[in-house]
Specification:
Layout (H helix, E strand, L loop, with lengths): L9 H6 L3 H31 L3 H12 L1 H4 L1 H8 L4 H26 L17 H32 L5 H30 L3 H18 L21 H14 L1 H21 L2 H7 L5 H29 L1 H21 L3 H29 L5 H14 L1 H15 L5 H26 L2 H20 L15
């Protein structure tokens, strides 16, 4: 995750990240309020349709499946189109898909149980379940391209030395909107009617699309070696170039594999989180929201302190801290008998874990060449996020299999123990591979290479990017 500001403007950039960044920041905040409502509404809707652990896990897997099959094509698209316009189109499509779900839920509202009675349902509402499955799949496809374009847009509107600060702030507002504002609002609206949060979520996507559309300039990747009139490379050649670059960058390659296994582990427990909360912790819609505040508190603080921690402890130490603390937190959640304790554990976990996103995303944005950023980013995320649907389905399988040997409560606790064990192994591996020395050497080499490339006269006929701060 490079159009840069003049050196004389760097001091101002430290105070003001620019109007374009503010529009992206506000769009992120609004859409994440909707996502926060959806984080309550979608899982509760799934458990109101079926109580089958595998079918519930399949809904979570469907949303993440596009990261497996669409991520690589999305990278090629990102490097061929105006990234800002792509974000606008994808947010518009996400709003449309969500609106379809809202209308379908509204039509079935009279037959659905109230949110506090979902544990009493028997059987599966097949038609609504299939629509939910299809909608989450389509939403996932739009999210893949939107997020890839969003991460590649950031270096075009923010100075490279401010990327950790900009990403940290964006990560914090995502957490505030996603867990402090959205879920309580979603819970309140859910108690009014099952369909209302989905309608509001759809509106948030449309509002975000409008804000990003107001960012001035064009944001197409410039290829330093390509001249106007040259034949456009095939998709396969473009994709191979991205795969080859990442494979030969051993640090980022290792980081992608480790993150893939981290996300697989997290989805293993995450896909069963609603069932675990309902059946083991015996929560209501309101207490589910309050428990989610633990994620928010940790992520908000973590987003702001991550750059400071990176400077004080070293980036490699921070990444190791994420892996080690995640192992302890996940296993502890598996033993937790009380939702406030679970919320506290989540707060600690996300506070220490926020540095992973801030450090690694900023690192990628700094060192991957601009004309390859979309493709390399997509290959990275193919490994990093493509493992999530596998983890989601494994969660359903673990609960189902464990249920034959132990109680239902213990089978739901088992996914957290498996999750924590995977993180423990990753800590041992990551501490050796992701050292501060390797990360900082890679950053310095990447910035030097990009500076040399920028200094050469460009032969590309691509559109320009507005300077930072516009």
């Amino acid at each position: 995750m490079p159009g840069y500001e003049r050196i004389s403007d760097v001091k101002r950039a430290r105070v003001d990240l620019g109007g374009s960044y503010r529009k992206l920041y506000l769009a992120t905040a609004i859409s994440n309020v909707g996502d926060g409502m959806a984080a309550i509404a979608y899982p509760w809707l799934a458990t109101a349709i079926t109580r089958n652990p595998v079918l519930i896990a399949l809904v979570a897997a469907a949303q993440r499946l596009p990261w497996m099959f669409f991520t690589l094509p999305a990278g090629v698209i990102t490097d061929r189109v105006d990234r800002r316009r792509a974000i606008v189109w994808m947010d518009t499509l996400r709003g449309a898909f969500t609106a379809i779900v809202a209308v379908a839920v509204l039509s079935e509202q009279g037959t659905l149980p109230t949110p506090d009675k979902v544990k009493d349902i028997v059987g599966t509402r097949t038609g609504l379940y299939l629509l939910l499955l299809l909608a989450t799949l389509m939403l996932g496809c739009a999210e893949v391209l939107r997020d890839n374009c969003g991460q590649t847009l950031m270096p075009s509107i923010v100075e490279h030395q401010n990327l950790e600060r900009a990403n940290g702030r964006l990560w914090s507002i995502e957490s505030v909107a996603n867990t402090f504002i959205g879920p309580p609002l979603g819970s309140t609206l859910l108690l009014i009617a099952f369909s209302v949060p989905f309608f509001i979520d759809a509106g948030s996507f449309f509002a975000a699309a409008a804000l990003v559309a107001l960012i001035p300039g064009t944001f197409r990747a410039q290829h330093p070696e390509r001249v106007a009139g040259d034949p456009v490379p095939s998709w396969r050649d473009d994709l191979k170039e991205g795969v080859r670059w990442l494979y030969h960058h051993r640090l980022l390659w290792s980081m992608a594999i480790i993150l893939g296994l981290m996300n697989m582990a997290s989805m293993l427990s995450g896909s069963m989180f609603v069932l675990f909360s309902q059946d083991v912790l015996d929560i209501t819609v309101l207490t589910f929201t309050l428990m989610g505040f633990g994620f928010a508190v940790g992520a908000i603080i973590g987003g702001y302190v991550a750059p400071w921690l990176s400077r004080k402890l070293g980036s490699g130490t921070c990444l190791a801290l994420t892996l080690g603390s995640s192992a302890v937190v996940q296993i502890s959640v598996g033993f937790s008998p009380w939702w406030p304790l679970t919320a506290l554990l989540f707060a600690v976990g996300t506070l220490l874990g926020s540095s992973w996103n801030v450090i690694t995303v900023s690192l990628r944005q700094s060192i991957i060449p601009s004309h390859l950023l979309g493709r390399v980013n997509s290959v990275y995320r193919f490994f990093a996020w493509g493992m999530m649907p596998i983890g989601a389905m494994l969660g359903g399988v673990v609960v189902t299999v464990a249920g034959h040997f132990t109680s239902h409560d213990n089978s739901l606790r088992a996914v957290w123990f498996v999750d924590g064990s995977i993180y423990a192994v990753l800590f041992l591996v990551g501490r050796r591979l992701l050292t501060t020395e390797r990360l900082e050497a890679a950053r310095a080499a990447g910035l030097a290479a990009n500076a040399n490339a920028s200094a050469r006269p460009s032969k590309a006929g691509a559109a320009t990017v507005d300077p930072v701060g516009s």
